[in-house]
Amino acid sequence: MLARRPFFITFLAPAVLTAVILAAAIFEVLQYSVREFIPGSLNVGGFTLANFAALNKPIYWWVLADTFFISLLTAIFSLLASYPVAYALVRAKKDWVRSALVSLSITPLFTGEIVRTFSWMLTLGTDGFINSMLRKLGVIDMPIQLMYTRFGVVVALVQFSMPVMIILLATAIAHVDRDCEKAAANLGASPSAVFWRITLPLTVPGILSGIVVVFAWTMSAFSTPQLIGGGKILMISNLAYLQGFSVLNLPFAATLSLVALVCALGSLALMKGVTSRIERRLAVN
Amino acid sequence: MKKLAFALGALAVMASATVASAQEKLVISTWGGNWKEGVAIVGKEFTKRTGVEVEYITGGTLDRLAKAKVARDNPESDLVNTTAHVGYLYYSDGLMEKLDWSKIPNAAKLYPMAKRSDYTVADYVYVYTPAFRKDLMPKDFKITSWEDLWSPAVAGKLGLPDFDPSHVIIAATKLAGVKPEEWDKVKPKLLELKKSIKAFYQSDATSQNLMRTGETPVQVLLNINGYHLEKLGMDVEIDVPKEGAVAGTDVWGINANSKKKALAEQFLNIALEPAMLAQLCNFHKCSPMTSEAKLDPEIAKLPGIFTSQEAIEKGAIVLDDKTYATLLPQWKAWFTENMMH
Asked: Per the count of CB atoms within 10 A, which of B51, B139, B177, B277 is most buried?
């Protein structure tokens, strides 16, 4: 192929260069993870496995479990919140409704993560929008704690992930063969039966890709848990940041980063296995 | 082809012009926001006297340190403005030039404690101290001692910096009557503080935001931030506990391998002029490192403002930079593992 089309080399060059730089960076992280930390110095010492041994503390297992749990919750709630929007986006009859839905669901992608997180801080805070409304309506006397909780972090991450989930689901819904739905309806299926037994199963590949993408994305979330979690809710990237840029323990930060990478790849491989099995089962049925 | 050659030629001219103008500039690494504005007060005066422009590169304390380490042989800046114990990390790693005091005669007017090392010189002192929103705490609530942070009235209301737990650790050692190096002895006491902590802030901005929104009506904060909140009309009381507030100093250092060492020394000498320090400290509301710098009387009487070295030693807990720099990683690691989650 390359001999017949030499311009392919030119096309491949940027990708190869990026891959080489990425591999070099990962190698650097790897070599830092097996170096000794010297307190009060920027230099690292000799080779050691002590950083991996230091992981054997409950805090690190908790943070890993929390990261996994928050990522999973975010993926599931993003799916639940995004599916109706994506469905309406594809199936709306009026052009202006579709345009409005596209604008509303995609625009957040163009605002930075920090901006969105700050707006959630204003919404979830003690004197924020939700607490103020609930107090004015007489539902609560004292503000409820929404900031610095897993709930607050998940809510903000769900909103952050929704545009991507909506795009993936809308693509899947748009590819559903409407004739199948019409056939089911002609055979007497109610609209809800058509949805649950035809439309939804046919969009499962989109649902699974959405879950995998949002899960992997959330595993590396940083600023949202940092700001909404206020240091009380730590995800693995926050812990790596604290070790690297606060303690200046770059070797241990590298170890945590490596663990995060392995966990993310492991989770993705696991999910890939599960999704392939589901897709195969659906194909057979 | 001619057009392409012309365009490339124009680009080359523009690039060389940029390099030329960069050569005439003194580059200073400092924090953003108010801190940069403070340094810019000196920068303007420096440009007025020398005709040399000042360029600022801004960032957080530790990411600037990381960048300096990466650019060791060809530093991005000529002067560094950072925290004193981080200054130790710079020079212990060979990232700062030894200061030639004969080229900085104004340094002689400073308190002896201002010469932090052969490489760094401090221009002002600030403190980390408890503060609280009077309108959000009980009427009879007062902070006279660091011990008050452990009181039931503070439960679930305290905000602390996530980047530096040293203040409460140093305070706990002071309360227990042990040296900071013996902080192991106060771990149980520190764990008791968990019930008071509501959140950790990541920066001056988030500290101010948590106080403004009332999320953490009690904080251990930088006194300068406290005065800023008062200026914004917030009902904040800043208290210096009887054990003393925890002092911090910012220092200047010249980047190792800077090609503009003479200009950097000239800048430092201007920065350390008493009149300049007075202007800077009136701006930040901090304590200058010389009694020759005359503060506005209104500022001089604020809690946490000192007008002599004796006053600093009496009203503040001061730790040497090496001890601070070597203990901080241990404190931080322990705090992250035991207090934050």
From this structure: B277
**How buried is residue B82: exposed, middle or buried, by Cβ count under 10 Å (0-12/13-18/19+)?**
buried
- Asked if the structure places residue A42 within a domain, the reply is no
Contact B333 A63 (CB under 8 A): no
Q: What number of C-beta contacts closer than 8 Å exist between A and B?
A: 93
Taking the domain B126-247+319-338, which CATH number applies? Answer: 3.40.190.10
pLDDT(B17) > 90: no
Question: Cα distance from A111 to chain B (closest Cα, Å)?
Answer: 20
How many CA within 13 A on the CB side of residue A249?
Answer: 27
Q: Which CATH architecture has domain B21-124+248-302?
A: 3-Layer(aba) Sandwich (3.40)
Interface test with B, best of A248, A255, A256 (most B CBs within 10 A): A248
- Note the pLDDT tens digit of each residue in B249-304: 999 999 999 999 999 999 999 999 999 999 999 999 999 999 999 999 999 999 99
Domain presence at residue A36: no
- The residue ranges of every structural domain in chain B are 21-124+248-302, 126-247+319-338
CA distance B120 to B84: 8
Residues 6+ apart with CB under 8 A from B118: B91, B98, B99
Domains held by chain A: number: 1
For B202-214, how does the pLDDT look when each residue is reduced to its tens digit (9 = 90+)? 888 889 989 988 8
Token duo for residue B320: 């040497």
Tell whether A13 is within 8 A of chain B (Cβ). no
Say how far apart CA B90 and CA B322 lie, in whole Å: 11
* pLDDT tens per residue across span A61-99: 999 999 999 999 999 999 999 999 999 999 999 999 999
B126-247+319-338 has the same fold as B21-124+248-302? yes
Within the 22-61 window of chain B, which residues sit less than 8 Å (CB to CB) from chain A? 60
Would strands B25-30 and B53-58 be described as parallel, antiparallel, or unpaired? Answer: parallel
Q: 0.90 exceeded by the pTM?
A: no
B-chain residue closest to A223, CA distance? B202
- State the residue range of the domain holding A156: 61-284
The predicted structure's pLDDT at residue A7: 77
